[in-house]
Amino acid sequence: MLTLDLTNEARWHDLAPGVRAQLRPLTTALMVATRSDPAVEAVPEAASDEERAVAFAKALARRAVLTWEGVGDADGNPIDPSPEAIDALLDVWPIFEAFQLTYVSKGLLLEQEKNASALSPTGPSAGASDTAKPAKRRARTARRG
Q: What is the dihedral of CA 84, 89, 93, 96, to 10 degrees?
């Protein structure tokens, strides 16, 4: 069952020990805006899937991160989120992985669930392929007695 959170409130996500970020809900509007982000559209066609994933994650994070805790500059002073700081944070591999797992993948899991079975175009068996070999001879029925 799909449960809807109608409050649509930002939530805190733990990204590493002592590092957490408050993120906007992963909505359709946020995903659509991210897909048309100039940084995402600028990724060359020849780019690898990994390069595309990094560009998308950074663009999404720049839109989603509202505030954070446990992130500081080189001198250890806390800093506020900025596009440059968010990109730098996602350049840290464990943070990137946590962002993908705790935030992005939840939206993608739902996408995968709805794509688990292909729809039949014109009925319950249209487009279905046979999985069993045809019987060589007619089956015998049990005798009544």
A: -90
Per the CB < 8 A criterion, the answer to whether 68 and 97 are in contact is no
Q: What is the pTM of this model?
A: 0.71
Residues with Cβ within 8 Å of 127's Cβ and at least 6 positions away in sequence, in order, are 118, 120, 121
CA angle at 81 for the pair 57 and 56, rounded to the nearest 5°: 10
Residue with tokens 């440059």: 84
Which residue, 40, 41, 57, 39, is CA-closest to 107?
A: 57
48: confidence class by pLDDT, cuts 50, 70, 90: very high
